[in-house]
Specification:
Blueprint: E1 3-5, E2 15-20, E3 33-48, H1 56-64, E4 69-79, H2 87-102, E5 109-116, H3 123-136, H4 142-148, E6 157-165, E7 168-177, E8 190-195, H5 201-212, E9 230-235, H6 249-271, E10 279-287, H7 290-302, H8 304-311, H9 318-325, E11 337-342, E12 345-351, E13 354-355, H10 360-367, E14 371-377, E15 383-390, H11 394-401
Parallel strand pairs: 4-5, 8-9, 10-14
Antiparallel strand pairs: 1-6, 2-3, 3-4, 3-9, 6-7, 7-8, 10-15, 11-12, 11-14, 12-13
Length: 405
Amino acid sequence: MVKMIEGGVCAAQGFTASGVHCGIRKNRTKKDIALIFSEVRATAAAVYTQNLVKGAPLTVTKNHIADGYAQAILCNSGNANTCNADGILVAEQMSALAADALGIAAADVVVASTGVIGQPLSLEPIAEGVPLLVKGLSKAGGTDAAEGIMTTDTVKKEIAVEFTVGGKVCRLGGIAKGSGMIHPNMATMLVFLTTDAAISPEMLKKALSTDVKKTFNMLSIDGDTSTNDMTVLLANGMAGNDPITAEGEDFAAFMTALNTVTVALCRTLAGDGEGATKLLECVVTGAKCEECAKTVAKSVICSSLFKAAMFGADANWGRVLCAIGYSGAPVDVTRVDVSFRSAAGEIAVCKRGAGIPFSEEKAKEILLEKEIEVLVSLGDGAFGATAYGCDLTYDYVKINGDYRT
């Protein structure tokens, strides 16, 4: 059983965090650097953007956790440290600054950056900020850390759960950032997860890589895959359970807790898309294979025409069928059913690939809600998938028209 609790990224035993403004961002009211720290060395796993252009911090982090362990996460916002000639050096120096202040090895520091691409990142504000971060570490610091990694986000994103493994109470929590430049296969999305469950590096890696295929890799805001995305999971074992070293009941319990957290963060990320007014979920059922279901769900959620229709609360189901048709999935369109559902009710708009009579007024009422489900039944099997996204609004263009300046 998984229970929602308070505490975010600091809910698990042994984890503290902090966030401050150090001067990377011009706006002094916004925090721009964050630190997460484990009292003891933790097993570590991460997944990264599939963009061939990768931020320097990703390269450094990948090298640092190659042994399966880490103890701290340092992340700045306001500058991506990407496509910079000295990027690797700066990322390594960021790690060294945190390591020296914490009294740990630099190789045990995960480093991350988010913000504008191609702008040199000065170490001076970071050097001034790290001592403040270390001094401010606390169990209540998760919210400050969540704020410190935000860019165009309008809300902080944090969650935590409690679950049981081998008779021991464990906790798993996290923070995330991401609002735009988000597309399946990781995106401008940074996710930092912590748990006090004991689990081997190999099984932690398996858990995270398996989960993201159904969560963060099913999330799209605008079709752009970022250069700096990563999701990192640290497990320090302080809950005292027998270490999870193989699949079984304990691993299944861990996976359930992890998925609860990642799905919640996915929904929050999607609902806070740049300029978004609505969270969209495309729930596909009746597919002949899981990959078919994923392909269809992502195609619908990525359709700019469909997203624009949802902004206008227009039940233009033809755009859903269109996206299914060009998805590349082997679908018999004559078997496809489509419905829209929200807190205001549910309405069927398409049966067996053809339109059916429905109340435009009722459909409008359903689509004016903040959270909308697009239900697609392919009528061809037993597999399903869910993709997460948001509507496409005028404000998305406004935000990105002058993002750099």
